[in-house]
Design a protein that fits this description.
Number of strands: 10
Structural class: alpha/beta
CATH topology of the largest domain: Rossmann fold
CATH architecture of the largest domain: 3-Layer(aba) Sandwich
Strand order of the largest sheet: 2-1-3-4-5
Strand content: 15-25%
Order of helices and strands: EHEHEHEHEHEEHHHEEE
Distance between the termini: 115 Å
Radius of gyration: 57 Å
CATH superfamily of the largest domain: Response regulator
CATH class of the largest domain: Alpha Beta
Helix content: 40-55%
Number of helices: 8
Number of domains: 2
Shape: rod-shaped
Length: 302
């Protein structure tokens, strides 16, 4: 820890030595100057807790020296105790205070009084230094807090923006799911109607491939869906209706006509005749590609 500095200013070396010896038990860094000019130079280069300044010096007396010391930057509150061998008259004291003196000490020195006064001013200086350090620490902490606050705000904004973007993406995805679900629901409804219709139904491609068969058609012929889809027409249409059925179906497949209705005898699983009213309908797409053939069958016995 650095020692507190005290400046002694006197043109007589013996006085400086005497003052230094009186202060040696205070653990101070005592610096001596033999003139006002030297004191000014030292004060401009160091920070002192106190200046003990002799009033009567040649060339530049204590009052002029004090005035110039206070003009040095950062030293307007520098405590100066004037040291004098002259009886202190009221006018003399007033002049000293006008030049910034905080106190007077009269030669010959009273060691107890001198040490007491020096202690007071050094203690004030050290407390002020400590306060300055605490203020600097508080400023540093406040600066760090300010930087950290800015960092937190920026981080929060970045994360908030990310969350907003994720939330938007999630909402868009949910809307897409809902739309898909609604579409699927519509498709499911159509498929449900197809599957559970009281009419037998078959869906074909234009090349005659069977895509789907509903439950009622399977009941009419008494066969399984997979076997019906993969079966030849000969095994589904009774011989008595096969020729007429194939002729009309081929005409629709070849786009010679779009619709046919008539009685068609289906062949049951045991070869029996199943009398039905048959309807064949061409369903064209907008592009006229991937057209479908829709067949509906109704039991004529109903």
């Amino acid at each position: 820890m650095k020692k507190t500095k005290v400046l002694l200013v006197d043109d007589i070396e013996m006085n400086l030595i005497l003052l230094e010896e009186m202060l040696e038990d205070l653990t101070l860094e005592v610096i001596k100057a033999r003139s006002g000019s030297e004191a000014i130079e030292l004060v401009s280069q160091n920070r002192f807790a106190l200046v003990l300044l002799d009033v009567q010096m040649p060339d530049m007396d204590g009052f002029e020296t004090a005035e110039k010391l206070y003009q040095i930057e950062g030293n307007k509150d520098l405590p100066i105790i004037f040291v004098t061998a002259v009886n202190i008259e009221e006018q003399y004291v007033l002049k000293g205070y006008q030049f910034g003196a905080v106190d007077y000490i009269i030669k010959p020195f009273d060691p107890v009084l001198l040490i007491s006064k020096v202690k007071v001013f050094c203690k004030l200086y050290e407390q002020n230094n400590l306060l300055d350090l605490k203020n600097q620490e508080l400023l540093r902490i406040e600066k760090e807090r300010s930087h950290y606050k800015i960092y937190l705000e920026e981080t929060l904004k970045t994360r908030t923006d990310k969350l907003l973007n994720l939330n938007k993406a999630l909402k868009d995805e949910v809307l897409e799911w809902k739309h898909e679900a609604q579409s699927n629901k519509g498709e499911d409804t159509i498929l449900d109607c197809f599957e559970n219709s009281h009419l037998g139904m078959i869906v074909l491609t234009e090349n005659g491939t069977r895509l789907e068969v509903n439950k009622k058609f399977c009941e009419l012929v008494g066969n399984q869906k997979s076997k019906i889809i993969n079966a030849d027409w000969v095994n589904l249409i009774h011989e008595s209706s096969l020729s007429e059925f194939e002729t009309n179906l081929n005409q629709i497949l070849e786009s010679e006509k779009k619709h046919y209705s008539g009685k068609v005898n289906l062949k049951g699983i045991k070869g029996e005749i199943v009398n039905t009213n048959f309807n064949i309908q061409l369903i064209q797409s907008e592009s006229k590609k991937n057209n479908l053939i829709f067949l509906t069958v109704e039991d004529s016995a109903r």
